[in-house]
Amino acid sequence: MPSHPYKPFFLIAALDATLGIVVWLPWVSMSDRIDTTGTNAGDWHRNVLLFGTIPTILAGFLLTALPRWTGRPAVPPPLPRALVGLWLGARVASLVSTAAGLALSATFMLAVSSIAAAQIIAARDRRDFKILGLLCVFCGSIMLTATGGTPASYRLAVASLLGLVMVIGGRVTPALTCAFLGGRGVSVDPEPSRAVEGLSAALAGAALIVWVLAPQHPATGILGAGAAVAHTVRLLRWRGWRSRASASVTALHFGYGWIVVGFILLGLYVLNPDRFSQAAAVHTWTIGAIGTMSIAIMSSMIRKHSRRPFSRNAAATAAFASITVSAVARILAEAFSTSALVWTELSATCWIAAFVLFLWAFRDVLLRR
Length: 369
Fold this sequence. Notes:
With 369 residues, this protein is an all-alpha fold. 77% of the residues lie in helices and 0% in strands. Helix 2 (41-70) runs parallel beside helix 4, helix 5 (129-146) packs antiparallel against helix 6 and helix 6 runs antiparallel to helix 7. The longest helix has 33 residues, at 151-183.
């Protein structure tokens, strides 16, 4: 087991994200087909990515970052080993029974959350209590899905993951931007505005809660529009355009920007559901925000621990471009129903390319013992 816990988790996450869509891509044109576990293409697709790939990324990031954030000792090697085994068990179980696979995925996420809770509580790190709360909500969404998933349980999963992107991305993005600019002798920006931070968190939280409970309620659109404005202001304060010389830092800003686009599309859906699709907002968040930030944050963590934080890497840059095209193509699939299959296939192909390129870019770190 590598000394850095992120290595096995980022490796299996990228492989899972790739293979999951490789299997699903031929299936997408037969959306009414049911597999041997009783799951259709859409549900299987969501379960693989939301409850399989993303938890491994969270595990790798949290087990590596939390000891530094909290000042606590690093987790002992047996814990990551056991978690990897549990995750693989969940993957095998899902081939036989969707419910069994989801139950083990929930157990995996509960174990990761418990480890995070132990470190955060022991350090009395109140700043990270919100991360712990969002992890618990996400774990609960997996349990709800395992016991008979509903659209609301999937919305709850997306909302909790989006909250984690806002919290973690809102910490990592400005920090790396300042580090990059500081290394080039450029003055860094002042501390973030508490008013902007508080308002953007409150509006986004309220909008997502109402969306989970009543996606077509007018309050969802109103709060979503307010969240879009607040997070635009938050994003602009980070001065992302000043770090355009670094593809990895720029990707963090692009990933966060998709949150704003998703709230805009959600508001348009509430305003005119006959013309705009809720799926456009959901895929903007899942592919655009969560997908881009996942690749960008994994890349940043690998670079940091391999002591090359802002080095140029053509494959990594291509991965960022591919995930962006994937998000755009999936939104276009909702906008142009007559050619939806073509855009969906393009989106899936670019998603696969993004994670293959990520694996190629960091193969020497992820595969080295």
